[in-house]
Amino acid sequence: MLVLSSPSGAGKTTLTRTLLEQENIDYPGKLALSVSATTRAKRPSEIEGIHYFFKTKRQFEVMRDSGELLEWAEVHGNFYGTPREPVEKALAEGRDVLFDIDWQGTRQLLDKMRDDVVTVFVLPPSAQELKSRLVRRAEDSDAVIAQRLRNAAEEFQHWNEYDYILVNRDLDKSFARLRAILIAERLKRVKMPNLNVFVDKLLTELKGLTP
Ligand SMILES: Nc1ncnc2c1ncn2[C@@H]1O[C@H](COP(=O)(O)OP(=O)(O)OP(=O)(O)O)[C@@H](O)[C@H]1O
Ligand SMILES: Nc1nc2c(ncn2[C@@H]2O[C@H](COP(=O)(O)O)[C@@H](O)[C@H]2O)c(=O)[nH]1
Predict the structure, then answer these.
(1) What Pfam families does the entry give (predicted)?
(2) At 173, which helix (H) or strand (E)?
(3) Which residue among 1, 32, 46, 108 has its CA within the 20 to 30 Å range from the CA of 118?
(4) Displacement of CA 57 from its chain's centroid (Å)
């Protein structure tokens, strides 16, 4: 489970979507994106089921109270949560799962499955650039942008709870670094449960080669 968090506008959605696209070319089906449920209004560019599952507050509360969410949080005045079933299914199939969630949700995943979670915090190169990105994205009203910038101060403070930090200055470099994190994490011995079978096979082959 690879989790990206950041203050709004630092670039985690761009990075997660780019990683998903590239991985689907290189290793089809290996990486799944967790699509969250939210009570936030849909942005003009967003598509139901691709970017989010858009819910009313009542629908969200039913999902939350019936245990359908792996984690959930209130962020910028809206509810967001991770549907449990698709994540559990993907993990059971041996797929890696990518999350774009905030620090509160990250804490909940860590409490439940510490050993299976790798966390990345994305920082903007400057506060001015953070604001410029939110403005350039042109998806939120001025009031929403102002609220997200106010909330950024609180979110910044959680950077030191994460395994990796990406200062997202140059997008290509950040993406290369994110891929490097994924590649290195996949190469960890503890993440290779069938390695003993492979090594046993090597030993058998070796016996056949030695007198
Ligand atoms: N390295 C970068 N350089 C310049 N612009 C960038 C960079 N990374 C992302 N952006 C742009 O900044 C804007 C915000 O990025 P994005 O939507 O990915 O942020 P986010 O962290 O997911 O925000 P939110 O939490 O609000 O969803 C987008 O318009 C994106 O194209
Ligand atoms: N705890 C969770 N946080 C989530 C989830 N899905 C998204 N988020 C975070 O909310 C903010 C705002 O997102 P936006 O799409 O409205 O810009 C951002 O920090 C996301 O990472 C979730 O399922 N759980």
Answers:
(1) Guanylate_kin
(2) helix 171-186
(3) 46
(4) 23
Nearest-ligand number for the alpha carbon of 168: 1
Write out the CATH class of domain 2-34+96-209: alpha beta
Mean pLDDT of the chain: 96
Assigned token pair, 31: 């990486």
Which pLDDT tens digit goes with each residue over 58-92?
Answer: 999 999 999 999 999 999 999 999 999 999 999 99
**Pairing state between β 31-33 and 96-100:** parallel
Q: Kindly tell me the burial class for residue 183, based on how many C-beta atoms sit within 10 Å of its own C-beta (0-12, 13-18, 19 or more).
A: exposed
Global ipTM: 0.98
Q: Which residues are annotated as a binding site?
A: 6-13
| Ligand 1 atom nearest residue 100's Cα | 22
Q: Say if residues 105 and 80 touch (Cβ distance below 8 Å).
A: yes
pLDDT in tens, 91-111: 999 999 999 999 999 999 999
Whole-prediction pTM: 0.95
Taking the domains of the chain in order of start, what are their residue ranges? 2-34+96-209
> Which tokens sit at 7?
């203050």
With both helix axes pointing from N to C terminus, report the angle between 127-137 and 142-156 in degrees, rounded to the nearest 10: 140
Residue corresponding to tokens 């967001």:
80
